[in-house]
Amino acid sequence: MTALVKFRNVTLGYERHPAVHHLDGAVEKGTLLAVVGPNGAGKSTLFKGLVGLLKPLAGQIERGVLRTRDIAYLPQIADIDRSFPINVYDIVAMGLWRNAGLFGGIGDKDREKIHDAVAAVGLTGFERRSIATLSGGQMQRVLFARLLLQDANLIVLDEPFTAIDAKTTDDLLAIVHRWHGEKRTVLAALHDLDLVRTNFPDVLLLAREPVAWGPSNTVLTAENLLKARQMCEAFDDQAAACVDAA
Amino acid sequence: MLIYKALIAPFFEFEFMRRALVGACALALGAGPVGVLLMLRRMSLMGDAMAHAILPGAAIGFLLAGFNLFALTVGGLAAGLVVALLAGFVARTTELKEDAALAAFFLVSLAIGVTIVSLRGSNIDLLHFLFGSVLALDNQTLVLIASIATLSLGVLSVIWRPLVLDCVDPGFLRSVSRSGAPVHTLFLALVVLNLVGAFHALGTLLAVGMMMLPAVASRFWVRDITPMILMAIGIGMLSGYAGLLLSFHTAVPAGPAIILVAGLVYAGSVIFGRVGGLARQLFPGRHLEA
């Protein structure tokens, strides 16, 4: 199994306060990994570091041959201006940026791909709808359709099913499994442990420091979960410099 | 016929009216799309600030070379671009809210500009600077305005994708391309360019009117961005035409008349517009089946 991404003693955080503390490990190619942990555990921070939005305070994140265009990232609270006059079709079409770029045209084959992506998320007929008129779940489906078109090797989803109804969750999970079947690497930060147990073979339990990383049945034990819950959430203004810091 | 005499004859009989109409239409063509994007990027007030910032630059040009088109244009462009870049820089690198810094800045610009103009010019000259001279557009100026419109449309069509994406989902744009910042700067340059063109016709105080009023009015009629742009251009041209006629038949000066008409269209749109207009809100009609 080849490692797609390696974390070497990585610390990520804000203004010297670590949100992810001394993480070591590797994400194998083709894994379906759930990252779980209490609020403030550093899941979003880890993902931001992984996709390159945040520079590590210490340590390295080795992405090997992965380029920016090989990673598709769905942030937790999408910074999308929902009042902008644009429709579903155009948002989904942006997923083709990797091939079309700034000026490339969209041919017939691309149009087919867009329609297929829209259909895959169950939004056929919504193409001309303005995004301002969509519900939360519908908007999330649109973003998944865009992810589909991005055709990425590494897909990073930050809390994709929060505040989403059960039907949408099931449909979007099916797409996640489809990606896994296509040998793509998928990472997802999740809160619903039952969902994780039934759908994700591998889990990283994070509580600022890694508590456990491995197959879900070995990681999600009561003991580990208790350890994770006991982690301190707040930044400590009085904290001294870390002795293990490089 | 009376209608012909009132609505068409002035343009047939008088060359200065034809010129003014051409100038106004060219302005609408360039300022319309730029205005819509400015509004959607929530930079309307910044557009106003930049319009005022042009004045000191143009005033220095006037001080050095009088009413020379080249001097005024270059001066205005330089001043406008400096402000645009500074504002963009501040917005991107600090938490400071743009409106506070810009509010102070554009009042100072206006004061400086008026002072400089008064050093060399008379009150009439000052009026030209503040309210433009749409009825006195010579060939050179017309060509300038038309070129600006052409250039704007050309550049916009090239940077369209990243520009729109930067408004809707800047995070996604950052993840796929590094063109966000350069495109933003290029867009600001276009805004300044159009404001300088409008400055010649409408003056520093009203220049931004041709940019913002049609754009904001179009927001009340259509929901998609391309029709919005087309509508803004249309409203701009209509305001030019009707404003000039208003000025011709009454004593209202031409520049303000154009903006007045645009303002009336805006007011009408707020009240009767299909998308979020007041009338629709007060009398929504029966709800639909699905």
Outline:
The complex is a heterodimer of chains A (246) and B (290). Chain A has 246 residues and is an alpha/beta fold. Chain A is built from nine helices and nine strands.
Rg of chain B: 20 Å
Number of helices of chain A: 9
Instruction: Give the CATH level 1 class of chain B.
Output: Mainly Alpha
What sequence of helices (H) and strands (E) makes up the elements of chain A?
A: EEEHEEHHHHEHEHEEHH
Number of strands of chain B: 0
How many structural units, i.e. domains of chain B?
A: 1
Q: What is the first-to-last residue Cα distance of chain A?
A: 30 Å
Q: How many whole angstroms does the radius of gyration of chain A measure?
A: 19 Å
Q: Count the strands of chain A?
A: 9
CATH class descriptor name of the domain at 1-66 and 185-238 in chain A:
Alpha Beta
State the end-to-end distance of chain B.
50 Å
The name of the CATH topology of the domain at 1-66 and 185-238 in chain A is Rossmann fold
pLDDT average of chain A, as an integer?
89
- What spatial form of chain B do the alpha-carbon principal axes imply? globular
Low-confidence stretches of chain A: none
SSE class of chain B: mainly alpha
Based on helices, strands and strand pairing, what is the structural class of chain A? alpha/beta
Order of helices and strands of chain B: HHHHHHHHHHHH
Shape of chain A: globular
